[in-house]
Amino acid sequence: MSAREGLPRLGDDPARTYRLGVMGGTFDPIHNGHLVAAEQVAGDLDLDVVLFMPAGSPAFKQDRPVSAAEDRFAMTLLATADNPVFEASRLEVERPGVTYTADTLEELRAAYPDNVELFFVTGADAIIDIVHWHDAARIASLATLVGVTRPGYDLERARRAIEASGLGFQVFYLEVPALAISSSYLRRRRAAGQSLRYLTPDSVVGYIEKRGLYGWEAVAGEAVGGQGRES
Ligand code: ATP
Ligand code: MG
Hints:
Elements: E1 18-25, H1 32-44, E2 49-54, H2 69-80, E3 86-88, H3 91-94, H4 101-111, E4 116-123, H5 124-129, H6 136-142, E5 144-148, H7 155-165, E6 171-174, H8 183-191, H9 202-211
Parallel strand pairs: 1-2, 1-4, 2-3, 4-5, 5-6
Bound molecules: adenosine-5'-triphosphate (ATP) and magnesium ion (MG).
């Protein structure tokens, strides 16, 4: 199987450069905060593609059960399907073992020619942790980081942590329209029988209802260990 199988085609014209964004997350479930952030970054940084990358077995968030990777991937696919710049990737859900972003970026680097530049997009909460992630220096050497604002988290603090790390991260800091929502918030609402409408696309709401995710009935249901990524 070629390294590029299942990945968007980029890099064919050697006379130009291509910009590939990677939006990592647990996406349990994906919500409009992720989508708005990715759309804004794609526009501001002129990205050719944003690859949404649900973590297979996330390295952190090991403290709570995470929905099955196939459900998180299906919701990611549904949420991104109507945007020509967005793609959902199975790279991490198919990789055995704990999911590390450094491995993902390395796989992408190997899959594309040098005229494809990698941008790893994270919210202000995740970027502050990234210096402690597994192989942070490797991440810094493989991709430019894009740190986006997120209500309740201080991007300025993240900037200081990144600078103090001395790991040589290249970072763009971007303001995105504030959506004070999280997957945890959606899960709590659903468990309390409250509506998820307008917090995530209708197709995702429908999938959650059809599969019975996050309700009281899901508590005893299928779950794989861990949530989140890294550290
Ligand atoms: P959870 O509550 O389960 O941690 P989450 O909403 O934080 O879920 P993740 O899958 O953990 O979602 O996050 C994936 C990425 O999206 C992270 O880089 C995170 O910072 C970013 N992100 C999530 N929600 C927002 C938001 N509302 N605005 C900006 N960035 C966000
Ligand atoms: Mg999170």
